[in-house]
Please model this.
Amino acid sequence: MRNFAFAFLLLLAIAVLLSAAAFASVNQNANSSTTTNRNQNDSRQITPPQQDFSKNTWELPDNADKTKNPVPTSEESIAKGKELYLERTKGNCVFCHGETGAGNEANLPRLRRKPADLSNKERMSSMTDGEVFWKITKGITGIMPAGEKRMSEEERWHVVNYIRTLAKEPAKP
Ligand code: HEC
Model:
């Protein structure tokens, strides 16, 4: 009788061990499959190395500065240009250059490059309308959006006429 009880306990112990081993291996499988999943997810999340835009600059056609402005400056043209300058889905120049053209302080920390000061009369008068037009048209990849993607040619000339009104004489000391 004693032997019988002993054998029974032994069998019970073996059964417990076996089921524990089976449970552990199921667990291992579950773990290893989640790790492979995680690895797959990770590889999908890997982003390409950050592009470097710091050397990008204007790529304008030759003689861009010789292009003549076909839209005469008028109150109407300036008003249209202002609307485009401010409109988010159009020029959205205000996002970087600010309402005065001197720069949008609030957005400055988010910009890759400090925007040019469009209120700087000396600087702005050194550029022909044609040069300004082409800069607005082509932009700089990663730095300033190409205006031709969102505005017609005529609209871009209105913007040129408008930003001419932003240039201010430097304050007298
Ligand atoms: C994402 C920010 C951003 C937006 C939006 C933007 N600009 Fe610019 N802009 C810049 C930066 C930065 C520069 C200076 C680039 C350089 O010279 O390296 C610049 C330069 C310019 C220049 C050249 C000035 C110079 O002295 O050479 C003009 C003109 C100009 N922007 C007009 C505009 C107009 C008009 C719009 C709207 C249609 C506009 N920008 C939208 C960032 C922006």
In short: The mean pLDDT is 85. Helices lie at 2-45, 75-86, 94-97, 121-125, 129-138, 153-164.
